[in-house]
Amino acid sequence: MITRLNHVSIFVLNQDSAYDFYVNKLGFKVHTDAPMGPGMRWLTVCPPEQPELELSLMSIDAGMMFTKESAEAMRKLVSAGTFGFGVFECNDLLATYEELKAKGVEFTKPPKQEFYGFEALFKDDSGNWFSLGQKAK
Fold it and tell me: Is residue 35 part of a domain?
């Protein structure tokens, strides 16, 4: 029986830039940063309060996973913001929004109360978009 999810991939256009975004702007912790052969790198980060969930920042390059053509197509989808999303939680949405905005995080929707909760939307430096919601009190 499956008991939990411990890794999830986020496809990024550039791992160095993604490292800077997720670590220096979002405040995530680096779990693993290791070479994986010529031109390949295994880079995972995790939210500080959820170290058991590793986000694998996967570069979109021709090689093991992608052909040259599929890598080009995937890079277009990711950079256009049309591939993938995630939902992150925080304790204080207004404070976190202001903190991240001051660090240069691009928000596409400011904090707003919706029928399903209090959220804001932002994009990473590759074009992936995320919902940032406040934990229910």
Answer: yes
CB atoms within 10 A of CB 15: 19
End-to-end CA distance of the chain: 32
Residue 70 sits in a domain whose CATH number is: 3.10.180.10
CB within 8 Å of 76: residues ≥ 6 apart: none
Q: What pLDDT, in 10s, does the model give residues 74-92?
A: 999 999 988 878 999 999 9
- Predicted TM-score (pTM) of this structure: 0.92
| Residue 2 domain-assigned (yes or no) | no
What's the structural domain count of the chain?
1
Asked if 31 and 54 touch (Cβ cutoff 8 Å), the reply is yes
